[in-house]
Every structure is written in C-alpha cells, then in structure tokens.
Write a structure and sequence with these properties.
7 strands, about 250 residues, Collagenase (Catalytic Domain), five-stranded mixed beta sheet, globular
C-alpha cells in the first residue's frame, strides 16, 4: 500500500512539472519579414508585369551585383555556392559591378531582424537584396530563393492556377497578412507552360505566416511537402531557361 501511495505522489509531481512546462513558441520563418510584400519582396512604386515584360530581364542573362564589404569570408562562400547552383543549371551568369554599370543588385549583409528580401527582376539602377547574417546566409536554398526573385520570379503559390493545387486556410493566417496569399492575374505573371511545382525553392512552407503554427497552405495531393530550401528544383531551373531563352548548351 505504501508503494502505491508513493507511486501516486511521484506521478502527480511529474504531471505537475509537465503542465508547468512552457509551451514551445511558434518561430516565424526568416523569409517572413514584417512590412515586406509576401515577406521577402521589395516592391517598386507599383507592381508591374515583372515576369512577362522583357524589360525586367537581365541583358545577356547576366546579373550584375555588388556585395556588401562587411560579409564574412564564410558567408561569401555560401552566397557564391548558391549562385553557382543557378549557373550550373541555367544559362544565368553573375559578374561584379563595373564602373560603367548602372543596373545592378546591391547585396547587403543585413543585421539581425532584417530578414531575407529582394526586388523581382531587373528594376533599373541600384536595387536591393538583403541577406540577414547568419540566418539567411546559412540557408543554401534561401540564397537561391532570393536570387531567383532578382532574376524575375515571384513565389510559386502566387500563380493564377494556385487554387487547383493548394487550399489556403485563411483563418490560420496572421491577421493583416492575408494579402501575402494573393494570386497574380495572367497579365502579370506567366507559368511559362510549366506544371505546378510543389518542390519549388520559391514555394511558401505549409505554415507560412501562420498565426499559431498550424498549416496555412494544404496541398491537394496528400503527403506532398512544400517549402523546401535545399536546392533549386528541376522545374525552377527549367522555367529560368525558358524565360531567358537559354540554348540547349550553355
């Protein structure tokens, strides 16, 4: 009987400790920066036909850039590795800004809390890209993600046909962030004839802008994972090649 009483007391203590344990806080993704369109897009004065209009494409498929001199050596290595993956799978090239270049991406080493962000397409003059260190620079797929914005792509789930592939759980989205789940009309973006890509490095995660950590995007194909940040997908690379009319060999 004494053993039973002792066991009951121990169980009560354990339950008390478990109930008192703090709940794990929902941590927002680094690409969901407050105040930026869709969390990581720097808008021009107005949203124009960035993907369809060729004026927003980089001439000769070459992105001109300038790197913040405060980047650490290891951070630069990670940035170059991300860009190399784009170069190895498409005809896009990168070169540092020269004295006569007026259109270029200024890649800034962002302070803590500034997030990861980029303009979409070549906007003319100096345009921004922010990579918070080390949160953004430590994530290979995020480096690719932001550069694909600069090359000319919006998020995958912004496609006009998005609702054929995803269910948006509107009541789980943080109030005031619903606009980040808008679709673009067909006169603004083009799918380039490519199928919907759940595996795109430009796709939101299932819990993007979640109010409580529950899913805000649910794929209509059960078991599909969205929001990977490991590598450029085959369809991502294929769409870049289509947009820039890459030759079969580059």
């Amino acid at each position: 009987m004494q053993f039973v009483k002792t066991l009951a007391i121990l169980l009560a203590c354990v339950c008390s400790i478990l109930n008192a344990a703090p709940q794990q806080k929902w941590v927002r993704d680094i690409e969901e920066t407050p105040g930026l369109f869709e969390g990581d897009i720097i808008l021009p004065p107005s949203i124009e036909n960035g993907l369809i209009d060729e004026v927003y494409r980089w001439p000769n498929a070459t992105v001109v850039y300038e790197l913040d001199p405060t980047f650490m050596v290891d951070e630069l290595a990670k940035i170059y590795a991300g860009w190399a993956e784009i170069t190895n799978t498409t005809c896009i090239k990168f070169r540092p800004k020269g004295p006569s270049d007026t259109n270029y991406v200024m890649v800034r080493r962002g302070a803590e809390g500034t997030g990861c962000s980029s303009s979409v397409g070549m906007r003319g003059g100096q345009q921004g890209m922010n990579l918070e260190a080390p949160s953004c620079t430590n994530r290979h797929g995020t480096i690719i993600h932001e550069m694909l914005h600069a090359i000319g792509f919006y998020h995958e789930q912004s496609r006009p046909d998005r609702d054929d592939y995803l269910t948006v759980v509107w009541d789980k989205i943080e109030p005031g962030k619903e606009h980040n789940f808008n679709k673009y009309p067909e006169d603004t973006v083009t799918t380039l004839g490519a199928p919907y890509d759940y595996g795109s490095v430009l796709h939101y995660s299932a819990r993007g802008f979640s109010i409580d950590g529950n899913d805000t995007l649910v794929p209509k194909i059960p078991g599909v994972t969205i929001g990977q940040r490991l590598q450029i997908s085959q369809l991502d690379a294929g769409k870049v090649r289509l947009m820039y009319n890459c030759p079969d060999e580059w």
